[in-house]
Design brief:
The complex is a heterodimer of chains A (115) and B (111). By secondary structure, chain A is mostly beta strands. Chain A contains no helices and eleven strands. In chain A, a hairpin with a 2-residue loop joins strand 5 and strand 6. Chain A is globular and about 35 Å long. The chains are: A mainly beta (115), B mainly beta (111).
């Protein structure tokens, strides 16, 4: 158990809908990262927040947005969902904000199915 | 465009049969190369970060090395519990950070 929690574990929804995925980092970690993993695209980095501020941006679509709250938990919002958004979404956390020098601890993931 | 290629896609080993996984990259501005282990249905687990050519890191039966164009993950005398998908990722910085993952190598170790 990495200490990172994600809810829900599974989510089934329809095309065009909007969903929110939630992540609680390990105690003491200030950075939160979001990743998408699908069979055809592999693991992709979406975005990083450090202490409430956006720190790095990856392949995040405009239909997706994220934020980190004062209590350091984070939410990933996915809107206008398409079939291709079906994937495992992972959250990770680390103590510091530098991608290069901070070990990331991954949560168990949220499996999103868009029908 | 940054490219990260892992080979082979899959590797079947007998217990105790040492082997190596390859991660080759074509990037500019390398800041670090990461190795992760991922079990089915679970999140990746961090193994190593390498920063410069010539660097080596070890952990139990695993040893990671880095050159200017590729990294190797050597598995010495593997055990069935080493069965997993091993992912490498490359972090670069130009105007902004970019983190790119390879497709992974799935290792199966038979007893």
């Amino acid at each position: 158990d990495s200490g990172v929690t994600q809810t829900p574990k599974h989510l089934i929804t329809a095309t065009g809908q909007r969903v929110t995925l939630r992540c609680s980092p390990r105690s003491g970690d200030l950075s939160v990262y979001w990743y998408q993993q699908s069979l055809d695209q592999g693991l992709q980095f979406l975005i990083q927040y450090y202490n409430g501020e956006e720190r790095a941006k990856g392949n995040i679509l405009e239909r997706f947005s994220a934020q980190q709250f004062p209590d350091l938990h984070s939410e990933l919002n996915l809107s206008s969902l398409e079939l291709g958004d079906s994937a495992l979404y992972f959250c990770a956390s680390s103590v510091g904000g530098d991608l290069a020098y901070n070990e990331q601890f991954f949560g168990p993931g949220t499996r999103l199915t868009v029908l | 465009e940054d490219q990260v290629t892992q080979s082979p896609e899959a590797l079947r080993l007998q217990e105790g049969e040492s082997s190596s996984l390859n991660c080759s990259y074509t990037v500019s501005g390398l800041r670090g190369l990461f190795w992760y282990r991922q079990d089915p249905g679970k999140g990746p687990e961090f193994l190593f970060t390498l920063y410069s050519a010539g660097e080596e890191k070890e952990k139990e039966r695993l040893k990671a090395t880095l050159t200017k164009k590729e990294s190797f993950l050597h598995i010495t005398a593997p055990k069935p519990e080493d069965s997993a998908t091993y992912l490498c990722a490359v972090l670069t910085f130009s105007n902004d950070y970019k983190l790119s993952f390879g497709a992974g190598t799935t290792v199966t170790v038979r007893a």
